[in-house]
Every structure is written in C-alpha cells, then in structure tokens.
C-alpha cells in the first residue's frame, strides 16, 4: 500500500467465505488506490490477493488462518503494516442487514449491540461482519467506522411489498420482506443518473444484479417499490448455490420423509441448490454454458435461471405500470451476452429489443434504437458505494 498524503477511507465488504477491501483517497473525487480480497476463508488454501494501483504492484499469497476469527486478525495485522494505513480516517463496512435503518450510520456501541441482536436475521453474514467491526474497534477505538446497510435501498418499498402472508404477530418480531443487494442498486441508480437516463429520476427501472447471488429490484421515480429477495437473501431468483423461492411445504415434507433438520434444510437451500443443485456439476454459469450442449443437467440449470429471471421482469413491469430502463449488473449480468439474450428473448411485447452486436460487445447500451426500453449493462461497484456512503456519514465532501 503506497504511502499517501491524502485522507483515506478503507472499505470492508465481508462475506461468509471472503473479505474484500479497498482504499480510497477522499480529496475532491474518490479515487481507488488499493484493492484486495481474502478468499476461501475456513477452507484449505486461504488466499490474500492485492493490487496497489499507485505503485502498480500486485501479489497473492496463502494465509495461515484456519477460520474466520484468525483470518480477521491476520487481515487487520496485514492492513496495519501497509504504508497507507496511517492515513485512514474512517472505515466503511457493508452490513448486510439493517432492519429499519435507511441511511448509513456511524457505528456506536448501541448500534453494535443492535447488530448482535439481529444476527439471527442474517446468520450467514452478520456474525462475520460484526467480527470485522469489533476487530478494528479494539485496535483503533478512535477510528470512526460506518455501517452501510445492504437493506437500506429497499426501505422505500410500499407496505404491501413488505408483507409476508403469515400470521400478523410475526411482523411484530421483524419477520417481513427486506431485500438485499442495496449497495449495488444504489450505485446503479447513481450511474443511470450520470449517464443521463431520464428513468433514473422519472420512470420505471428494473435493476438485475445477476452474480453468485442474484436479485432484481423495481424502481419507480428513483425509489424502490419491490425486490425479488425477501426476509433473507435466499429468496427470489435461483442463484449459484441458493434455491430462490420454494414451496414452503417442502420444509415439513423433507422433515417427514428425510428426517431433515432445520440446519440441514438451511444448508441445502443456501449451499447445495440453485445452479449447482440442478446441474449437479457446477455453480458457475460459465461452466454450465460451456457444457449445456452435451449435458442436459447443465442446460436445464441455465434454462431455469433465464426463465425465472424473465418472469420476474414481467411481474415487475406490471408492478411498475410500465418500463423505461432495464439494467444488468453482477458477474453474470455484466459478462454473459448469452444469458442476457435468453432473458430478454420474447419480451418484445414490453418494448425490449436487443442489438445483437452491442450485446455481444457488452456495450453500455445493448438495446436497438427502435427499442422502447433502454437495456443497459453497468458494471457495479459496491466498494465505491460504501466509500461514498461512509464519506457522507462522516461529513466529508467528495465528488463522483
């Protein structure tokens, strides 16, 4: 990490098996100067990869860490040893669940206590994120940290879109639809506005974040009105290893016929389902597209993903009362012309018409001039959004 004279924001995006981090200069416009990630946490061969964008240096090496706790300790030690760390004036964290919070917030002992209380709402993510927050607080108690909530973008949803059709008493316990991928969606809306897309502030937009985790959001006049994920990030579209929406009767069925416990069911729907479950070979869309011509299981996994995504676009267009813009993001959404084409195929009744050439080139605008709906490909940047929100919460003035 190069020694820097500017104040810097460190961003931390902690997942269940990986931690991404980046450093941003806060002078005038946010400028990324350092980026890295730790992968395969808790598995053999845990790796740290980094790229110093100032010095033009990059490297990767194996981390001697057996679990999440030791990985967090190692990462904080390693970051402290980098030349740019003394210039860090704040740390922005992706916090996957924010309950009722609609804005980024400076982390206080009270907020940290709240995150501990709501950990059961996101057991795959929140415990690890809390460990990262506490590790920095222990080492650097005067360094402000900011929680950037992945659920905040969806706080504008009308009440009808948040309700679950179960006994009302559970809503008092916080059981409702929340939505996720909010940091990605906030960035995409910011980019649509920068591109001069009028639908960003006045019109109907469907945002499709299609990666290992996949979801969609419906936005009207700049505000989210619905999203595909619900109480947890397991709901909605089929994903790499997550099932997406399921018949709830499966829980009791498998309990009776397979003696399946709740923990086993949770393991199945989060880690053994989706593309991996249908294909029985891979959770990676690239592998499935390569093999679909010779493996019917791979072909069916791809077909199911595209079919469910197409259906969601249709239902969201109905909820919006019309559609002006469709934006693809995420690893699959940004890089797979085949998947985009199959999802959009047959949606000409909505006014969607893709340009084959532009789609193959992953252009920013992939719809034809005659298309009534602007179809865009926008590389998302959750880390930049975290840095932006952290600066806002800490009162730093920056330009995009």
Structure in words:
Helices cover 36% and strands 20% of the residues. The protein is an alpha/beta fold. The protein has two domains: 8-149, Nucleotidyltransferase, domain 5; 197-377, ATPase, nucleotide binding domain (Nucleotidyltransferase, domain 5), CATH 3.30.420.40. The radius of gyration is 21 Å and the shape is globular. The model has no long low-confidence stretch (mean pLDDT 95).
N-to-C series of helices and strands: EEEEEHEEHHEHHEEEHHHHHEHHHEH
Number of strands: 13
Radius of gyration: 21 Å
Q: Using the coordinates shown, work out and report the CATH topology of the largest domain.
A: Nucleotidyltransferase, domain 5
Oligomeric grouping of the chains: single chain
Mean pLDDT: 95
Estimate nothing, just give the exact number of structural domains: 2
- Please give the share of residues in helix: 25-40%
Distance from first to last alpha carbon: 23 Å
Instruction: Report strand %.
Output: 15-25%
| Main beta sheet strand tally, sense and closure | 8 strands, mixed
Strand line-up in the sheet with most strands = 5-4-3-2-1-6-8-7
Tell me the name of the CATH class of the largest domain: Alpha Beta
């Amino acid at each position: 990490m190069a020694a820097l004279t500017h104040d810097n924001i460190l961003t931390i995006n902690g997942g269940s098996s990986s931690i991404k981090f980046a450093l941003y200069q806060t002078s005038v416009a946010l400028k990324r100067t350092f980026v890295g990630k730790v992968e395969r946490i808790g598995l053999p061969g845990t790796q740290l990869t980094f790229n110093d964008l100032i010095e033009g240096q990059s490297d990767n090496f194996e981390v001697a860490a057996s679990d999440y706790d030791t990985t967090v300790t190692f990462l904080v030690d390693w970051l402290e040893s980098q030349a740019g760390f003394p210039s860090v004036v704040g740390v922005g964290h992706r916090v996957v669940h924010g309950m009722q919070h609609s804005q980024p917030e400076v982390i206080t002992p009270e907020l940290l206590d709240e995150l501990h209380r709501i950990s059961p709402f996101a057991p795959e993510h929140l415990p690890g994120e809390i460990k990262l927050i506490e590790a920095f607080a222990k080492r650097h108690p005067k360094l402000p940290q900011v929680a950037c909530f992945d659920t905040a973008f969806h706080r504008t949803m009308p009440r009808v879109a948040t309700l679950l059709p179960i006994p009302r008493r559970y809503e008092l316990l916080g059981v409702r639809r929340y939505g996720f991928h909010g940091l990605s969606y906030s960035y995409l809306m910011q980019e649509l506005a920068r591109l001069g897309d009028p639908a960003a502030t006045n019109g109907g937009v469907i945002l499709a974040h299609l990666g290992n985790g996949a979801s969609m959001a419906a936005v009207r006049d700049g505000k989210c009105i619905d999203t595909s994920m619900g109480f947890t990030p397991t709901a909605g579209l089929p994903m790499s290893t997550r099932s997406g929406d399921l018949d709830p009767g499966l829980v009791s069925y498998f309990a009776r016929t397979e003696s399946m416990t709740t923990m086993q069911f949770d393991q199945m729907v989060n880690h053994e389902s989706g593309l991996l479950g249908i294909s029985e070979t891979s959770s990676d869309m690239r592998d499935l597209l390569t093999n679909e011509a010779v493996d019917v299981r791979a072909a069916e996994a791809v077909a199911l993903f595209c079919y469910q995504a197409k259906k969601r676009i249709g239902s969201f267009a109905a909820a919006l009362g019309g559609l002006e813009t469709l934006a693809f993001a995420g690893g699959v959404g940004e890089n797979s012309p085949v998947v985009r084409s199959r999802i959009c195929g047959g949606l000409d009744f909505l006014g969607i018409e893709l340009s084959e050439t532009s789609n193959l080139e992953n252009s920013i605008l992939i719809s034809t001039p005659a298309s009534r709906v602007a179809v865009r490909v926008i590389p998302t940047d959750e880390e930049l959004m975290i840095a932006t929100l952290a600066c806002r919460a800490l009162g730093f003035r920056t330009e995009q």
